[in-house]
Structure formats: structure tokens, C-alpha cells
């Protein structure tokens, strides 16, 4: 019996700024746009945090389930580097506002942009163990962006949002290849979030660690799985996508070092097997631990998949922990993903100009700041989310450190 992703939905905010507009406003070198290969950056509102992003991503999945199916969700894990408290988890708030069963196991994971994959693998193993036959698991990768002009070229590449992943037996989206994975971890400070209002990053170190991690993970995968060929085993590839230029470099590195593909064929292979996975990331920016699953959603919505196809996935988290794993997708996967119309929701976001972006940024950068008592007024932003097809959960402030939320 197969286990893996049965449903998946992406929430990437209700507003965006075009990357060329942001480059112009910040006075950045436009010649670097080509390597970044991004069109739009998702922008978080002051009423959006890691809780609202998670709930707004998962709500459409749960709304499509029967009461019995919802009751079978026995595990909820949020993966985030945007925690709202050093003890109380984002998951506890998500559990409440999604009205999940009281018998649900609830907790949170943190390992930069890798955490969701660790949770997916552990949850898949739990379901496959049949410790609780018929159980489902809900993993939600959710983060907010805490970047401004100090981040320089990382600012246009950093997105905002969440990916909700429902795991089950006989999965409709991705059947995870049991036991087919490769891992690589070591301690490195390539990026960190030392306070709830500020990110730091060593960009060069992070890029090289990402590339080294991919090579090491793939080699470990090959040690575990017989007769793997990078060019033929995987019909498509979906990688953690800080920006498309890095994914192109990662693909080129493995093609040069692990295959005998002529140099003039590498770009064609990239266009065929990888490029469809980059269309959604180019419209949102890096969604942290949701990034590789955003790439998978993009792949399923844009590639030609009519027969069972193996997808190779690479997940990387600064700090660092990385994994290369695989799974099977089919035409059923394409149909299932189409139910959530992710592309349509991205197109419905409101475009902000540079000055509107700056005005929102001043308040949204403090959304994770712990405050005992304060209010956040949603009224100035209602025009951005009241047209949504799904209900919208907004952050409204705190009372005695208890964060408050409201449905619109």
C-alpha cells in the first residue's frame, strides 16, 4: 500500500509587488533580475502571521472533506521558523481555528526551510506503520517574511505564505517512495533569525551549502537505492527554491558531476524536467519550508504528466539539514491539484505599488513581536481580502499575551 500526499494547497497572501517595481524602488541593479528569475513577491499584511497563513492554506482542504475524514486527522504538525512564542506552538492556534479533533497529536518543528520535509517523512512512516489504521496527518509549512532594504537582493526573493499537506493511505498527489531518501546535515551559520523582527544571512555561504548538500544527499540516496540514474530515474525534479537561478545551478552541478550528458543538452533537460516547477515560486518568492512543495504544486499544474512519473525532490534548510527523496505522480495527481486552483488564487492577489508596499512593510515586520496587550485594525486592509473565495482568518492583536484572530 502506498502512503504520501493526498491533498495540497498553497496560500501566498492576498497582495504582491512586482519584482521589477521593488528593484526600481530600492535602486537595485536590474541586470541581476535575470538570474533571480522572479516576477512577483508575495507581501504579508499586518493582520497576517504564521498562524493565519497556516489556517488559510489548510481551510480549503478541510472544507472539501467529510466529517468522518476530518475526524481521521490524528496528527497536526506546523513547520515554521516564524514561531509566535518560545513555548506555545503555532500548531495549537491552528488546531483551534481549523476545529480539528481533540484526539489529534499536535506539535511544531523547526529546522529553517527543511522542517516540513522532516515532518512529512516522519508522518508518512507513522501512517505506513499502521499503528492507527485509516489515520491521516496534516503538515503545514508556514512562515512570514522579515526582510526590508537591509536584506538587499534577498528582499525580492523572500516570500510569504504557507503550504498545507494532507497525508494519507492511497494518496492522490504523491506516493512517497518508502525508504528512498538521502540526507545530509551539519552545523553552519548561513542564516538565522536571532530576534522576532530581524533575519541575518551569509548569502554566499548559504548558496554553497545548498549546492554541497544536494550533492551529498543525492549520493546518500544512491547508496540506499539500487541502479539510480539522475537523467532517467526521475521524470521531473522539484527543488527548494530560494530563487530560480540557484535551482538552475544545482541542476547543472548534478548533471555535470553525476551524468555524461553533453553540455549542450543540459539546458534542454532543465527546461523539460525542472522549469515547470519554477513558475509558482517566481510569483511568490521563497516560502521557506513550504518552498519545495510549492515547486511540486507548480510542476503538477504546468508539466505534461499523463503516466506514472517519478519525481526527485530536494529539501534544504539552513543550519543545516537537507534531504533528497522521491515519489510517484500520475494524471490523478494533476486532477487533484487542479481542484485547489492555486494559479487562480495567485492571479487574484492585489498588486501593490512601491509606496503601498513600504507602508504595509513598516507594520508587518513586527507581526511576531511579543506584546501583552495590543490591537491590530483589519479595516484598512479589508479591501484586499474580502473578495476571496474562502473565508479569511486575520490576526487582531493580543490580550495578556494570548493572540487573537477573527474570521472574515
From TrEMBL:
<dbReference type="Pfam" id="PF08540">
    <property type="entry name" value="HMG_CoA_synt_C"/>
</dbReference>
<dbReference type="InterPro" id="IPR013528">
    <property type="entry name" value="HMG_CoA_synth_N"/>
</dbReference>
<comment type="similarity">
    <text>Belongs to the thiolase-like superfamily. HMG-CoA synthase family.</text>
</comment>
<dbReference type="GO" id="GO:0006084">
    <property type="term" value="P:acetyl-CoA metabolic process"/>
</dbReference>
<feature type="domain" description="Hydroxymethylglutaryl-coenzyme A synthase N-terminal">
    <location>
        <begin position="70"/>
        <end position="169"/>
    </location>
</feature>
<dbReference type="InterPro" id="IPR013746">
    <property type="entry name" value="HMG_CoA_synt_C_dom"/>
</dbReference>
<protein>
    <submittedName>
        <fullName>Hydroxymethylglutaryl-CoA synthase</fullName>
    </submittedName>
</protein>
<dbReference type="GO" id="GO:0004421">
    <property type="term" value="F:hydroxymethylglutaryl-CoA synthase activity"/>
</dbReference>
<keyword id="KW-0808">Transferase</keyword>
<dbReference type="InterPro" id="IPR016039">
    <property type="entry name" value="Thiolase-like"/>
</dbReference>
<dbReference type="Pfam" id="PF01154">
    <property type="entry name" value="HMG_CoA_synt_N"/>
</dbReference>
<feature type="domain" description="Hydroxymethylglutaryl-coenzyme A synthase C-terminal">
    <location>
        <begin position="269"/>
        <end position="362"/>
    </location>
</feature>
Amino acid at each position: 500500500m502506498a502512503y504520501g500526499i493526498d491533498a495540497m494547497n498553497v496560500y501566498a497572501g492576498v497582495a504582491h509587488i512586482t519584482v521589477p517595481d521593488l528593484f526600481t524602488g530600492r535602486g537595485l541593479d536590474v541586470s541581476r533580475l535575470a538570474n533571480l528569475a522572479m516576477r512577483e513577491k508575495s507581501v504579508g499584511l499586518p493582520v497576517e502571521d504564521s498562524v493565519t497563513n497556516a489556517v488559510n492554506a489548510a481551510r480549503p482542504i478541510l472544507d472539501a472533506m467529510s466529517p468522518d475524514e476530518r475526524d481521521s486527522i490524528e496528527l497536526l504538525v506546523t513547520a515554521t521558523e516564524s514561531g509566535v512564542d518560545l513555548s506555545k506552538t503555532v500548531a495549537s492556534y491552528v488546531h483551534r481555528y481549523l476545529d480539528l479533533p481533540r484526539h489529534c497529536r499536535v506539535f511544531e518543528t523547526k529546522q529553517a526551510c527543511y522542517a516540513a520535509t522532516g515532518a512529512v517523512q516522519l508522518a508518512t512512516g507513522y501512517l505506513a506503520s499502521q499503528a492507527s489504521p485509516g489515520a491521516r496527518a496534516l503538515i503545514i509549512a508556514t512562515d512570514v517574511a522579515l526582510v526590508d532594504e537591509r536584506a538587499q537582493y534577498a528582499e525580492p526573493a523572500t516570500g510569504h505564505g504557507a503550504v498545507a499537506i494532507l497525508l494519507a493511505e492511497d494518496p492522490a498527489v504523491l506516493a512517497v517512495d518508502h525508504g528512498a531518501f538521502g540526507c545530509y546535515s551539519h552545523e553552519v551559520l548561513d542564516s538565522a533569525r536571532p530576534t522576532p523582527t530581524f533575519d541575518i544571512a551569509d548569502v554566499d555561504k548559504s548558496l554553497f551549502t545548498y549546492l554541497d548538500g544536494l550533492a551529498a544527499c543525492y549520493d546518500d540516496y544512491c547508496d540506499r537505492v539500487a541502479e539510480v540514474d539522475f537523467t532517467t530515474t526521475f521524470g521531473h525534479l522539484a527543488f527548494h527554491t530560494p530563487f530560480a537561478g540557484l535551482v538552475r545551478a544545482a541542476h547543472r552541478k548534478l548533471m555535470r558531476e553525476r551524468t555524461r550528458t553533453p553540455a549542450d543538452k543540459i539546458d534542454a533537460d532543465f527546461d523539460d524536467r525542472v522549469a515547470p516547477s519554477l513558475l509558482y515560486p517566481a510569483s511568490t518568492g521563497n516560502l521557506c519550508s513550504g518552498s519545495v512543495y510549492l515547486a511540486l504544486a507548480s510542476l503538477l499544474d504546468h508539466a505534461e504528466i499523463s503516466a506514472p512519473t517519478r519525481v526527485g525532490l530536494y529539501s534544504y534548510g539552513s543550519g543545516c539539514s537537507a534531504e533528497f527523496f522521491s515519489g510517484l505522480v500520475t494524471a490523478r495527481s494533476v486532477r487533484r491539484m487542479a481542484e485547489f486552483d492555486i494559479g487562480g488564487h495567485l492571479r487574484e492577489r492585489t498588486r501593490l505599488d512601491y509606496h503601498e508596499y513600504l507602508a504595509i512593510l513598516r507594520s508587518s515586520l513586527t507581526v511576531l513581536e511579543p506584546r501583552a496587550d495590543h490591537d491590530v485594525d483589519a479595516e484598512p486592509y479589508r479591501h484586499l481580502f474580502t473578495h476571496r473565495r474562502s473565508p479569511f482568518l486575520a490576526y487582531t492583536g493580543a490580550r495578556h499575551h494570548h493572540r487573537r484572530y477573527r474570521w472574515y
